[in-house]
Amino acid sequence: MFFEQWLGKGNITNQYPKPDDPMPKVYSSFFDDWIGKGDNSFPWKLPYKKRGSKKGEPFNFVEVLLSELGNIQHLDRLAILKTRPNGMKGSMFSGHQSSNIGKYAAMPQEDKLMATKEMGMVFEYMNHPDIWKKFCDTYEALWEQMGNFDTFYATQSSAPTIPSLQDEWKEFIEVVLTSLVHNTRTTFQIQWILALGGIMPFNPTDPYKIHWLKNISVNQKKIRIAGTCPHLGSIKSL
What we know:
- By secondary structure, the chain is mainly α.
- It has one domain.
- It has helices at 2-9, 30-35, 61-67, 86-93, 101-105, 109-126, 129-153, 165-196, 207-219.
- Helix 6 packs antiparallel against helix 8, helix 6 (109-126) runs parallel beside helix 9 and helix 7 (129-153) packs antiparallel against helix 8 (165-196).
- The longest helix is centred in the C-terminal third of the chain and has 32 residues, at 165-196.
- The chain is elongated.
């Protein structure tokens, strides 16, 4: 998303607020020239050597970034990818709805209730202090590597001018999280309207609607990002 959408197109899927006229932030061959390309003149090093058919090949910047996402040195960072709603997290963070609305409408009542409840669970998980720390550790490590790239790129006198990747990374994550909160809240509202058959007076004798009332009052409030990181601004709940 960062290189292909944010830098390559100037926006992300279902961005909120929607930009008026997004434009690419880098030239078209930037990724191939500098990010995905390994070159012995580039400074990217990792504490291991490539083996097999890639033995002796230089590392590229993508491999440096991937090394920060979870490996033998950073096993704890993989925790942010765990728990049951993992597929849902992937859809939500990529700008898509947590579940297809058409499929959601066809679900049994109990499945609708659980699917909507899980959206709140995703945020409850992300906002847990231990998990948020791992998120921040990963974000900050990538932020630092983006700064390393900026320093290196500034020495390339013949290279086209681009914005600071470190600054763009910060703005990108802030936009991703802001959009995530807004879009999930919207989806939550659509789903409970579908599940209850529209906006109607509450029936205190209907057990299904009682469960939904609890779901709305408890889990909808969880849809927010409460934490911050040293080099990340606070995420507003718009």
